[in-house]
Write a structure and sequence with these properties.
Blueprint (H helix, E strand, L loop, with lengths): L1 H30 L6 H20 L1 H10 L5 H17 L4 H24 L3 H21 L5 H6 L8 H25 L13 H15 L8 E3 L5 E4 L2 E6 L6 H19 L15 H16 L3 H14 L8 H8 L17 H17 L7 H13 L25 H21 L2 H6 L3 H11 L9 H9 L6 H15 L2
Parallel strand pairs: 1-3
Antiparallel strand pairs: 2-3
Length: about 500
């Protein structure tokens, strides 16, 4: 059995290493590749995607899976479970389609960047049509009898079904709409403002200092700028990107903290299983719970602003006259006139997600044409948020996801936020007040709890099982609702 198992593991590692190579190429394209490099990069992605696909669907690999899965070993069971799940999906997809989609995705990114810069959706429209068509084709190959959106959603969350996710989104809508309305009608508002401009280099220096404070391992990571913030990598090399605006210090800082949450998860995976699914994350709902925990429960907390306001004043002397309590209120202002998702507060953010979910599920389901997106986007923004975007750049072109073909990703942000509140509750039950730990600069205790209860399990447990292992109960919306009602009632006096 040792020989066949060793051969099996080497095959799995080849698949994983090709994925990692494509990740580095993806990072390079979004961070530092020359614009014209896309002409070669799309072909490189096509070749590597086809190579990986062929390794996954290889008949001999299938025989190896059948053979090693007979062993009564938990590690082998998990590895086989995950590689077989991936193989069952990919074996139905023609290699030619995999190559075509890889090329389309690589080519789509610079077109999206240009269209966004020019404020013109029409420049991206034909590209998006091709992307939607290719993704629908993929879904149809995988399961022609299933809802295609549900099939694509499983790329990001394989174990928590779309019906469960839709139920959470609906519960969020029911709870948040009245709360947002109360805030809108309260008339109180937050009178504090930060209207200064902040040097980009200074903001990057500040982000690096905050990452030092939180405990980012620079020997295995780096911070760069990109059009849309993201994190990628593995246990040995987990990189983050962010973006800054001169007129908004808070946006870039919170973006950096969000991506730190993703990177920390990756850097804490069980290294001894590197190259196998046991050293991989368990889907994007778990991943987003980590980024949203750090962004919201740490980065938007009063204790955190007590800590970092002196750092900000040191980097930008005389720019901010507010105290930490006033800055806490500014950071948590409910932005009732904001059209941008990544700038949104913790309440209206989920309305942004619901809008995207409804539009992309309509696109994949065939109920909505790509050409209708700008009009439908405006209608839904006005309906759910009372805001109409000024242009396509701050409207339907603001997110990068569709240029990647990432249909089904958006709901994981909201469900991840719900889970982040549940994780926060479980953590405080175990180790006490997180606010106290922040004031003590004891971020190590927070990181260690996450490592022991979530990160170090890697891909061992399915999503529902991992949630129960970490929090001792299934996912529920209650902790998130309690958290936001208490927090925003206190800020707005409602």
């Amino acid at each position: 059995m040792t020989d066949i198992y060793d051969k099996f593991v080497k095959h799995v590692e080849r698949i994983e290493n090709l994925k990692e190579v494509m990740g580095i190429l993806h990072w390079d394209q979004e961070v530092m590749m020359p614009t014209e490099g896309v002409n070669a990069r799309s072909k490189q992605f096509a070749v590597l995607s086809a190579m990986r696909h062929e390794l996954v669907i290889d008949e001999e690999f299938g025989e190896m899976i059948n053979e090693v899965s007979k062993e009564n070993d938990e590690d082998i069971f998990v590895i086989c479970r995950e590689v077989e799940r991936s193989r069952e999906r990919e074996i139905a997809i023609p290699t030619e389609l995999v190559e075509e989609l890889a090329m389309e995705t690589s080519n789509a990114f610079p077109i999206w960047v240009k269209a966004k810069k020019e404020l013109d959706f029409r420049m991206f429209e034909n590209t998006l049509k091709k992307m939607v068509s290719k993704k629908c084709e993929v879904a149809n190959y995988i399961n022609p009898s299933a809802d295609p959106y549900e099939t694509l959603f499983e790329d990001y969350e394989p174990y928590l079904g779309i019906l469960s996710v839709e139920k959470i989104l609906e519960e969020l809508r029911k709870e948040l709409v009245p709360l947002i309305k109360k805030i809108r009608n309260s008339g109180g508002g937050i009178g504090f403002q930060v209207e200064e401009e902040f040097d980009i280099m200074g903001q990057e220096n500040l982000s690096r200092k905050v990452l030092d404070l939180l405990g980012y391992d620079w020997s295995r990571g780096r911070l760069d700028l990109s059009p849309h913030p993201f994190s990628m990598g593995n246990y040995f090399d987990s990189r983050i990107t962010t973006r800054f605006r001169r007129d908004n210090l808070i946006e870039g800082l919170l973006s950096t903290i969000h991506e730190f949450g993703h990177a920390l998860y990756t850097l804490n995976l069980p290294m001894e299983y590197y190259g196998t699914p046991l050293c991989d994350d368990m889907g994007m709902i778990i991943h987003e719970s980590q980024s949203r925990f750090w962004e919201n429960h740490i980065g938007r907390s009063p204790a955190f602003w007590d800590k970092i306001l002196p750092m900000i004043n040191s980097e930008f002397p005389g720019k901010i006259s507010l105290n930490s309590d006033e800055m806490y209120q500014v950071v948590n202002r409910v932005k009732l006139d904001n059209p941008i998702r990544v700038n949104a507060d913790e309440l209206t953010y989920h309305m942004h997600i619901i809008i995207r979910y409804e539009i992309e599920s309509g696109l994949i389901g065939g109920e909505l044409n790509v050409s209708e997106i700008p009009m439908v986007w405006e209608e839904k923004m006005e309906k759910y948020l009372g805001v109409i975007p000024k242009n396509d750049s701050e409207g339907c072109l603001q997110d990068i996801h569709w240029s990647h073909g990432s249909f089904g990703y958006f709901p994981t942000y909201s469900v991840g936020s719900v889970l982040a509140a549940q994780v926060n509750h479980a953590m405080e039950t175990d180790i006490g007040s997180i606010q106290k730990l922040i004031r003590q600069e004891n971020f190590e205790c927070i990181r260690e709890w996450l490592r022991e209860n979530i990160h170090n399990h890697g891909g061992r447990y399915t999503t529902p099982d991992l949630i129960e292992v970490a929090t001792n109960e299934p996912i529920k919306i209650d902790y998130f609702v309690k958290y936001v009602k208490e927090k925003y009632s206190g800020i707005y006096g409602i």
